Structures are given as C-alpha cells and as structure tokens.
C-alpha cells in the first residue's frame, strides 16, 4: 500500500449525484437550518459513502494544504505521550504546521470517531499510536487509501505499510530483567498492557529472552495483562494481588508503562510490602524525577521527545512529497536503563 492520492469527491459531484444545487449541498454539510433534515441526512450519507473531504483548494489556493496535522494517542496526561507531543510540536512549529490532538482513552470507538473528526478538520496527515482495544485497522487503511499520509509511533501495526517509529522495547525489557537476575532475583513477574499491542509483544519477548538466556524458567503465572494499560486502578490491583496470592509469589516485578509502574508501587506501599526488601520493582517509565519516589525507581527510559520529532519529520516527508512514496522506514530508537534503589541487590 502506498500514499498515492486518489481523486477527491467535490461538492459539485455530490450536487450532481443528488440533483441539488451546490450551495444547498454546502449548507447541508455545515448543518444549516435552511436545509431540511431529510436532505441534510441524504447529503451527509453520500459524502461519507464516497469519502468526501472539504475542498482544500478553497482553503488555500496556493498549496492546497491546511498546514495542520492530527495526532492520535491514548492520553495526553500520560508522561510518555506528553513528551512525544513536545517532540512533534518542535518540528511542526518550525515548519509552520498546526497540531491537533485526539485522545482515544484506550477506546477503539473513540479512536474511530477521533479519526473522522480530524479528517473533517482538513488535516494534511496523521501521527497515530494505537489504542489498547484496536485490532481492526480498516479505518486507517481506508484513510491511507484516501490519500491522507499516516505515520505510526510507539504502538504500531504490523501489516500497514507506512513509516513507523518505536523504541527498542525488546532490548530495554531484556536489560531490566537481566539486571534483576544479576542482583539475585529468581522469581521475576511482568505486568503489561493488552496482548495485541506491539509494545506488549516486544517487551514480553525481551522479558522471556532474558529469563531463558540466564537459565531461568518462564512461568506464565508471573505474566499479567492489563487491558486498559493501567488506566484503571482495579486491573492493576487485581494483577498485583493475583501475584501475591501465588504459592511462590514473585520477588521482583517488571512493568510496561508509567501508569502501571506508579500504581504497582502504590499498591505495594499500601500493603506495607517493603521495596526492594521483599519485592523489587522496575519498569518502562518517562515520568519526571523518578528518584523522588520512595524508594527511587529503576526505569527503562524511552526517547519520547525524539520519537515525536522523528515521527513528525517522516510525516512531513510524506505530506510534501511530489510523488507517491513506496519505500517506508521503521525507526527503532534506543532505550536506557537507569538503575536506582528499587532494584538493589537481594539480601540472601
């Protein structure tokens, strides 16, 4: 699949097909009270069915662009995505592009609606990190077929051909688990996000690889999934309590996101479980000042700002390319393990 732009359906096309005046179609698309409800519904249904987008030429006769891009992600309050957005805006502002953000809150339905909203806002391209619930990718496949460039970052699909930017999830997870093993931990658990996400698969692969290569067994009871990525307190609490209720509970827990890391630590503290005395904890995190937590947290730091910057640069290449782009890149940015008190050597 490439980003070749298809011929756009115009207001005149809709008017001709429905035997209406172009001015009536334009008013119906804007929801004008001057047009009957039945006609408005008929016009909008035809527009959706034929992938109508507002005429960019009417917006900008010079370049036919809105100079805006859409960003789709789970939640802006997430520290990681906040840094990603900063990276995106650093490139967008210097290139005179406006950034519009849509939050899925880990909902597939909100993601689909957000996508349609951004397309109606005339965005020239999209930067996307998939929601936890997203398995059906047709809404993005159709978007690319309509000629709207899309670049995926962080949570990326396997089967859509376009630019993608991720971090070394497998390598970062491997480093963290290997560090714990070297510190003397033998029952290492992993609390992660929903199973279909790319980051879940690659971080789990690094976890399992580190265990195997260091002669430790993979215990499925030590692997817990949070379908909302830690967005709901109860799913994290359930995961922790199930681990603690095992006949041989873990002596270390690795986590796959900011929200899961913070909530696991809070739950352990509320139960007066000493960290790292009884259970060590470390995870993928980009929150500020992890050394201020009690205890200071070992983290796998991701290049969030660079991810946003690179993704925006690649999107601009697609938007401003004079010819269809058929050769795509998948960038993998490095992670860095920051070792702190939460994973100190286990006392024998």
From TrEMBL:
Q: Where is coiled-coil annotated? A: none
What Pfam families does the database record attribute to this sequence?
A: LacI, Peripla_BP_3
Q: Does the keyword Cytoplasm apply?
A: no
Its keywords, alphabetically, are: DNA-binding, Transcription, Transcription regulation
| Keyword check for DNA-binding | yes
List the Gene Ontology MF annotations in alphabetical order: DNA-binding transcription factor activity; transcription cis-regulatory region binding
Q: Where is the HTH lacI-type domain?
A: 9-63
Which PANTHER family does the protein's record reference? HTH-TYPE TRANSCRIPTIONAL REGULATOR GALS, LACI-RELATED TRANSCRIPTIONAL REPRESSOR
What is this protein identified as?
LacI family transcriptional regulator
Q: From which lineage does this chain's organism come?
A: Bacteria, Pseudomonadati, Bacteroidota, Chitinophagia, Chitinophagales
